[in-house]
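Hello Y.,

Per our agreement to keep a running log of every chain we model this quarter, I'm adding this entry. I've kept the format consistent with earlier entries: sequence first, then predicted structure.
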Amino acid sequence: MAFSIENDWLEGDGVVHLSCVKNTRAIVGPDMIILHYTAGAGCMSSAYYLTRPDVAASAHLVIGRAGEVVQLVPFNIEAWHAGRSWYAGRGELNHYSIGIELDNLGQLRLEGGKFVAECGRVVPFKEVYTDDSGEGLTYWHRYTEVQMEVLRYVCRLLKKRYPIKYVVGHSDVTARKVDPGPGLQFSDL
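Predicted structure for the entry above:
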């Protein structure tokens, strides 16, 4: 893996750049990374969806299940990923953060012995993460090892380039969301 940041764009190893013209507000020195899951059909379809001018959401990066990386918004421009949010005494976290979407179907439901995503796709058992830390079992789409490896590398690179103090999940900054879910471990990010 060989990535670098040039003029606020991630470069290297097959990184795809898309244009998200709806985002124009500058960020000076982003100091947090907020992680999300896409709950979409795939990396590129989620990336294209987030660039649509009629969609009131965007992100800086989408990391696919096979480790592919798509950048939609340069790191010095605000993306719309956190919504109404609050963390460490601040609100409106889009103004201070880099948003990374991970290609993942999110929380699953057990129906007729099958694990089903919100979009209706059946997820094989080997891709299911089971969490029992709450009041009952919950099921989540498992992140891939290569996806996690790329995420760790990108987070380290962002920390070297920007004054990043926090790496958090969307659910850490708003009670409205559950992403990226309990299957994502933050300890080594």
